[in-house]
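Exercise 3.2. Students should predict the tertiary structure of the chain below and write it as structure tokens, then compare their answer with the key that follows.

Predict this chain's 3D structure.
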Amino acid sequence: QVQLVESGGGLVQPGGSLRLSCAASGIITSIYGMDWYRQAPGQQREVVAGISRDGGSTHYIDSVKGRFTISRDNAKNTLYLQMNSLKPEDTAVYYCRCSRYWGQGTQVTVSS
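Answer key:
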């Protein structure tokens, strides 16, 4: 049974930082590219960042470039998203994806 479990979300003030983790089990993540998505209330789910199988290639949506960093540790079967300089518009539920599998999401709220 494949499971992706996100953690690290929470409430943070504008300008703050959070680090999300996505721990995978039941799947060898190193053979897949992986992505972080987010979905804000009333909005469609959008891809935020992606990373290649070996971590050598990454991509980001324009709105998070320079603030977010995606990384992975294949030995730990874990995906990360370091989020700095957070803005209220980053508020959303964040999901990780590997192949056709999704995590349950973790809430990120940026508010003063």
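Discussion points: The radius of gyration is 13 Å. The chain has no helices and eleven strands.
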